Amino acid sequence: MPSTTTNKLLAILLASVTLLSAAPSADEKHISVYSPVAIYTLPVLDRGGHEYVGLLELLEPLGRVSTATDGRRWKLRYNAVDAEFVAGKTRARIRGHNFDFMAPFLIENSRGLVPLSSLSAFLPRFLGAPVNFRESARRLFVGDVGIQIGFQLDASNPPRLALNFSAPVNPTISTEPGKLRMVFKRDPVVSPGSQSISFDNKVITHASYSENNGDAELEVAANEPLMASFSNNRRTIVVSAVPPVATPSVAGQNPAQATPAANVASGNNNVHRVLAVVDPAHGGEERGAALTDKLAEKDVTLGFARLLRHELETRGFAVALLRDGDTSSTLDQRAAAANVARAGIYISLHAVSQGSGACVYTALLPVEGTSKGAFHAWNAAQSPALPVSRIVSAAIVAEMQKREFPVQASSASLRPLNNVFMPAVAVELAPGADGIADLTSANYQQRAASAIADAVVSVRDRLGVQP
Amino acid sequence: MIPRYLLIGVAALLVLVVAMGIYARHMRRQAGELESLAANALPVAPPASGPTETVTLYVADDAAGMLRARSAQIPLPGGRQQRAEELLRTLLRIYQQPGAAHPLAPAADIRSIYLVDPGAAVIDLNAAFADQHRSGILSEQLTVNSLVETLAANVPGIQRVNILVEGKTRDTLAGHADLTESFDVVTVVQAGNQ
Questions:
Q1: Which homologous superfamily does the CATH classification assign to the domain defined by A275-462?
Q2: pLDDT of residue A34
Q3: What pTM does this model have?
């Protein structure tokens, strides 16, 4: 038994390390793409003094994409647009017309790479929508998705600065003496017009806006420690000076832990929001089912998960993806990550080439191991939450049926469903009327993701709240 | 001048060497064909003997996403273990027919079934069963449920079932259905009735 406990602790540690390592490092270059259907981040590669991004990865979340490699030629079809590229050449054919890149097109491991410097001129030919690419900040806006910021200072004592956004936002917030910094990694926040705004106030002096490496950053400067709170369904962030706090009388307590600023500095800006952990199944070497000769289950689940994240976030959930790239984790690591995060709900996503519509699964628990008091066996950790999991499953089925999306519910001996202690379901997406192409169709995935998100909203009261 | 008898002797030896070479080549080819045949041979179960009985097979239907109960009359041997093996091989033959509603690979087979008292059964599949199984939650779970329910319905006293592949524990059947734990017969049957 001690070895089992040690193994579980190791699994939790490994999961934490994996999650940390899966996040893009501060030094890693990336591009953020904001569109009405998906918001995502892609790695940027330096080749021959130019910055490149994978074209398939760039277009895949936005529409139906297929590619074919023929020696040095790379053909791509996005929805109804055909294009042909030649490795090492700057000239490409798009919709039967020539297009000249600023740097040569590259093929690496069957992936087509295009230079960032040409995206502004290149993408509208595919997307048929206006594109605004801020190359120096590597932020790409497809369509009219930008979130505007408004500033409103209330000079009463203590002063309060209300930041009003045109849509809900979810920045990472940190504080340091005299500054409160908000980093918008997934919100298409745009510049307020001026990079720096001064306030006629002795406490809150000015705010500055900057963009870099796919992120937007808003920094509020003051002469006193600051704190932030959300209101208006996350459309407003109120920044104010930290009120004076009495020194704690408990011996040995760290006064810093007792201040509200400590909460803000820890980035805990999701108070009272349900955390949904979305798990795109498989990843890395573990490709999952071969849906076609070239399409692996792991790729479909990742795109689907990103859409579901967007749908849940717009409905007020905090969302964590267990992978946001082609990385691999063991099933124990995935379960441990969801458990450690104390998620309110766990959703595993799968894809299959047979059948039609979707199938929603709850855990088919094995013969339960020994339970000791409040502790459940690892293989049956799901047991106490199973009734709520079934309610979630039924809600998803009902929402999908409402949208005339073929669906059925079932139980499966599927890990890590058995190993998570919060309500948990797995959704396996199968093709629709258009066959296997549906699995990569943003519209098809969107319908499913939207139904799942609405269903989760309808049972929100039964889900745990992030502490 | 070489004597005539020496010439005849050398010629006979040459003919013998050539004939031996041809024979050796023929034997090598024949051995290769036998090896190839042995490698490709599907496992052939010995014909079951015993009185014919009516059994209930739970047959998976991928399109419907469920199991369908089907009655069959098959000769079953007397021993519990042999009976269980014959039962599942009969089920397997349904899945290996052309156009089956839940196709399994032609080379898929049940290596053995061990009945361990009290109430446990261990099904040992061959490698082809798992390696060539279609990957997907529904397809894999239907296979598991079909094996478990068919066994439990026709061999009294089975409460839980373990599934091995080539005598060893395997994480999943084909990437999804977890095979590391025992399947509780009651839970599987209840799930099938949902």
A1: Zn-dependent exopeptidases (3.40.630.40)
A2: 92
A3: 0.55
- B134, B144, B160: residue with CB nearest A367: B160
Report residue A165 as tokens.
Answer: 């956004």
Give, in degrees to the nearest 5, the angle at Cα B176 between A451 and B162. Answer: 130
ipTM comes to 0.73
Give the helix ranges, DSSP H, for B41-136: 80-95, 127-131
Domain ranges of chain A: 30-142, 149-265, 275-462
**Contact (Cβ atoms closer than 8 angstroms) between residue A333 and residue A15:** yes
Coil, helix or strand at residue A246: coil
Q: In what helix (H) or strand (E) does residue A277 lie, and over which residues does it extend? A: strand A275-280
**Nearest-10 crossing angle of helices B80-95, B137-154:** 140
Residue B142 belongs to a domain = yes
Q: What is the mean pLDDT of chain B?
A: 87
Distance of CA A424 to the CA centre of its chain: 19
Give yes or no for a contact between A218 and A184, defined as CB atoms under 8 angstroms apart: yes
How many domains does chain B fold into?
Answer: 1
Give the HSE-up count for residue A435: Cα atoms under 13 Å, Cβ half-sphere: 1
In DSSP terms, A211 is beta-bridged to: A216
Judge contact between B122 and B162, C-beta under 8 A: yes
To test the contact with chain B by mutation, choose from A292, A364, A370, A397 the residue with the greatest count of B C-beta atoms within 10 A, namely A364
pLDDT tens per residue across span A367-376? 555 555 667 7
Residue A17's H or E segment, with its range, is: helix A2-22
* CB nearest to B135's CB, from A289, A359, A379: A289
DSSP state letters, A290-349: BSSSS-BHHHHHHHHHHHHHHHHHHTT-EEEES-SSS----HHHHHHHHHHTT-SEEEEE
Mutate to test the interface with B, among A367, A389, A407, A429 (most CBs of B within 10 A): A367
Min Cα distance A293 → chain B (Å) is 14
Alpha-carbon dihedral angle through residues A218, A221, A225, A226, given to the nearest 10 degrees: -40
One-letter amino acid at A313 equals E
Instruction: Please name the residue ranges forming H helices in A189-296.
Output: 255-258, 260-265
Answer whether residue B41 is part of any domain.
Answer: no
pLDDT for A374 = 63
Taking the C-alpha atoms of residue B74 and residue B48, their distance in angstroms, rounded to an integer, is: 9
CA neighbor of B159 nearest in space, from B103, B119, B109, B118: B119
Helix A442-458 vs helix A297-314: angle between axes, to the nearest 10 degrees?
A: 50
Structural domain range at position B141: 52-193
B141 to A413: CB separation less than 8 angstroms, yes or no: yes
What is the CATH code for A149-265? Answer: 2.60.40.3470
B75 part of a folded domain: yes
The amino acid that residue B109 corresponds to is: D
Residue B28 lies in a domain: no
Structure tokens at A72: 């040095």
Q: B10 falls in which pLDDT band (50, 70, 90)?
A: very high
DSSP A270: -
CB interface of B with A, residues 100-129, below 8 Å: none
CB atoms within 10 A of CB A331: 22
Decide if domain A30-142 falls under CATH 3.30.457.10.
Answer: yes
